[in-house]
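If you are new to this repository, start here. Below is one unmodified record pulled from the training split, so you can see the exact layout before writing a loader.
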Amino acid sequence: ETSTEQYTKYLANVRLRSIGLKPLYSESKYQKSPYAHLERFSDTKKAAHTKANFFEASVTSYVMSSGITGWDEI
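And here is the target side for that same chain:
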């Protein structure tokens, strides 16, 4: 089994738990992300382990650049 398959099953368990259902995969290897070392680069530690589509949800980490100015004059 590849780490991608393991991660997919881990993520399925996470999603099921978040909506109050029992996990499908009970083996211990599916209780921890095989990519835990990469989670600091993503937002999966936030509420419900979800990412938002920029166009469908409020993006909380968006910051407007102060270096871009002059658009009002165009």
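Two things worth knowing about this chain: The radius of gyration is 18 Å. The CA atoms of residues 13 and 38 lie 19 Å apart.
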